[in-house]
Each structure stands twice: as C-alpha cells, then as structure tokens.
Design goal:
18 helices; binds phenylalanine
C-alpha cells in the first residue's frame, strides 16, 4: 500500500485543523446565530455543547481517521468490515461537506466582494444609509454574487489541486496567526464605539426568557459546524496525523482555539452592531450590514484608518473562509481519489463544477428566486438548516456510536493513548471514553428528537 502523506509536525496538525475549523462559522455564522437565538443564552449553550459534546466527537473522528488511515468514505468500513452498512455512513460523510460547500462558498463570495469594495475605498464617503442599502442591492442582484461565488470556489479548488502539504499546510500556517491578531485589533476598535457596552451585555448577560430547546439544537449545530464535525473533514484530516502525535492534545487545542475565536469574533462584532443600531436578529446578512455601516460612519472622521481596518477585516474573513473551504473540498478529493482513482486536479474540477452550479441556485435565492420557500425557508436557509441542524447531528451521532459500540475498546484506548505511551491520556481515558460512548450520543439524540417533537 502506498505510504499515506503525513502532516509534518504537531504545529502543522493544529494549524491545519484550526484552519478548517476557523472560518465563516466563527465570524459570519456565530454572530448571527447569537443574534437570532437570544444572545447570552445561546453563547452559554454553545460553550457547554463544545466542551461536553463536540470535543469528544472531535476526538472520536480523529481516532477513526488515524486508525483507518483512509478518508472518511472508507474509514468505518475498513475498521468494521463485518457490517456493510458503514458504507452508507461513509457516503453520508461525503455528501454533507458537498452540501455545505454549495452555500458556504456563496458567503465566501460575499466576503470577496466586500474585500474589493474595501480596497476601492467604497465605504468612505458613503452615507450610512447607502452602506446599508449596498448589501441589499448586492445580494439581490444576479451576476455579481454569482461571479464572486465562482471566483472564490475556483481559487480554493486550485489550492487543493496542488496537494496536501504544499497547498494546505503552507497556506494555513501563514494565515491563522495573522487572523487572530486582526480580530483582537477589531475588538479594541469595536469596544471604543459609543453604545458598545450594550453589545457586551447582550453577549454575556443571559436572559432566561430566551431559553428553549431550539436554542440548544442551534447551539449544538453551530458547534459542530464551527469545528467542522459530522462531515468527514476531521476524519479525513485524522488519517494524515502521524501515529506518535498526541491526539487528545491536538483535538483539545483545536476545539479551545476555535471556541475562543468565535467568542472573540462575537466580541468584535456585537458591540459594533449595537453601536450602529442594527437589529441583532438580522439573519445571514448581519455582519455584512453591520460592518460597512460602522466603517462608513467612522470614515466620515478618519477616512484612511477606516479604510485600512475595512480592508484588513474583509481580507481576514476571505482567508478564513478559504482554509475552511479547502478542507471541505479535500473530503471529496480524497473520496474520488481513493474510490475511483480520480486525479487531484480532475477531482477538484469536478467538485467545482457541481458545487459551483448548485451554489448558483443558493445565491439566486437572495434575489430572483427569493419567492421560493420550502417549509417557510428560502433555498439558502434550507441548505444551511438541513446541513447543520439535521445532517451534522445525524453524522456526529453515527460517529460516536461507531467508536463507542463498534470499535473494540482496546483499539480506541490504543489510539487515544498511543499504545499506552501517553500517560496522561491513559489516566483520562475512562472519562473520554464515557463522554464518547454515553454523554455525546445521548445529548445529540435527545436534543435532536426533542426539536422534532416540539
Ligand atoms: N468549520 C468551518 C467554519 O467554522 C466550516 C466548515 C465546515 C469547514 C465543515 C469544513 C467543514 O467556518
């Protein structure tokens, strides 16, 4: 068998996984979910879900990937050949990232458009109202958002076509630390705005009346989405992790870093939203409506500084979105390569063609197709809801059941403790295994079912 490529070092593993995890999920989706689902109550549910459920699922996915040494399609089958049904789980794990890719790259395209706008100093000198209507005009138009979506997706596909090491590692090593610094700068700026404290209160002071089961479903879906769980991405990355790597440390490092990043993004954006008097429940457009509004009002006083911050901010978003999309494409590429021996460039081209085309429909659902509603949701919302609140939960459930009930406990221990060599992991194994086998499946299932019953 051909030797599988490996990530070079511990840092490279964490950077690549964090590169997948940190993306629009943290910067775009988290703030708008917080805004739509009651502020601090959502934030707290999200933190609990991440530590109690997502982290064990994360460890379970890396365990499967590294043990099987293959992409997510074949991984479970290889570990448990007796049950043919794992093939369906494998197929599901390929299908989900492709669904996400279709609409995620539309938002990647929006970010690209705003980066161009920022570079053209378009947020300076426009009135706040004009900045607000810019967004509405843009997303409801036909060609520009489609062009941006396709350009964004093509750039990512091109990077993946160049290979695991040269493409993904180099790219994410460079951008993740830079992104972190940018977000911290944004917080300082945002907190200095008049009225910012209201946003801070909204994020951190829970309002008990906002509490309901839906909050938990969305918080858990958001947590899985943000950590790239329940869709094969982390299984696939796990298969590139070296056998002497400490899997618990890498997983926990990524989860905590991603959590922190979402909270920082929330702290950067929410105060600004309140300062600008924008409704936090504005939906997917929240940051795109809020941020230019801020830049234009600041731009009236400090045009150069405001333009600089705008450029840096949207550049950061585009880069974060790219590293995530790269990992989505990687799932499909590894499937097509291993199953059908399709070459990397060909696989990338194929994924670009299919997801690009479906993405066009998602993009149009903000404009000419906005009248089409399925169960009260636009096509875009339907994709997002179905992927994160249904498919991700389902797949995460399958993953923990697989590790908890279908893998031999000794094999799981062997993987998590590196054959007993990681002493601390050995001590923690009982707790980790209990979380994977019982806590995670029960939480996911009960929240999922309650949501459908209520
Ligand atoms: N986790 C990424 C984010 O937060 C999105 C993503 C989902 C990436 C699934 C890869 C796989 O933006």
């Amino acid at each position: 068998m051909k030797e599988r490529e490996h990530f070079g070092s511990r840092r490279a593993v964490i950077y690549a996984m964090a590169g997948s995890a940190i993306g629009l999920g943290n910067i775009w989706r988290f703030p708008y979910m917080v805004g739509e689902h009651g502020g601090a109550v959502f934030v707290i549910s999200y933190i609990v879900a991440t530590l109690l459920v997502s982290l064990p699922v994360f460890i379970a996915e890396v365990t499967i990937g590294r043990r099987a040494r293959t992409g997510s399609y074949a991984a479970m089958r290889r570990l448990d050949p007796a049950h043919r049904g794992w093939r369906w789980a494998g197929l599901l794990s390929i299908f989900i990232p492709m669904v996400i890719l279709c609409y995620y790259s539309v938002i990647g395209g929006w970010s690209l458009f705003y980066l161009f706008k920022a570079c053209a100093f378009d947020f300076v000198g426009t009135s706040p109202e004009a900045a607000e209507t810019l967004f509405g005009g843009f997303i409801s138009s036909v060609w520009t958002p489609i062009g941006m979506h396709l350009a964004f997706l093509a750039a990512c596909a091109w990077i993946v076509a160049r290979g695991v090491k040269s493409g993904i590692e180099r790219f994410s090593k460079l951008t993740i630390p830079a992104l972190f610094v940018l977000i911290v700068l944004m917080i300082a700026y945002s907190l200095s705005l008049p009225g910012a404290s209201q946003g801070v209160r909204y994020l951190w002071h829970p309002d008990a009346s906002a509490l309901n089961v839906k909050t938990f479903v969305y918080a858990m879906g958001q947590s899985f989405f943000s950590l790239s769980l329940g869709m094969g991405a982390i299984i696939t990355y796990g298969s590139y992790v070296k056998s002497d790597e400490n899997l618990v440390v890498s997983s926990a490092g990524t989860a905590v870093f991603d959590l922190l990043f979402a909270l920082l993004a929330g702290m950067a954006i929410m105060p600004a939203i309140f300062a600008a008097d924008i409704k936090p429940g504005a939906g997917p457009g929240l940051i795109f409506q809020g941020i230019p509004f801020i830049f234009s009002s600041l731009g009236a006083r400090l045009p150069v500084l405001s333009s600089l911050i705008a450029i840096i901010f949207f550049l950061a978003i585009v880069v974060a979105a790219m590293t995530s999309v790269i990992s989505l494409i990687e799932v499909g590429v590894s499937f097509l390569g291993e199953r059908f021996s399709v070459s990397r460039p060909k696989a990338c081209a194929l994924i670009f063609a299919v997801c690009g085309a479906v993405g066009v429909v998602c993009s149009l659902s903000f404009g000419p197709l906005s009248g089409i509603k399925v169960v009260g949701k636009s096509i875009f919302d339907l994709f997002d809801w179905f992927a994160s609140n249904v498919l991700l939960l389902l797949m995460a459930f399958i993953v923990v059941i697989f590790v908890g009930f279908f893998m031999k406990k000794e094999d799981v221990r062997d993987e998590i403790t590196n054959g007993g060599r990681k002493k601390l992991n050995d001590k923690l194994f009982g707790v980790i295994y209990f979380l994977i086998k019982w806590v995670a499946p029960i939480c996911v299932l009960s929240i999922f079912v309650t949501n459908f019953i209520l």
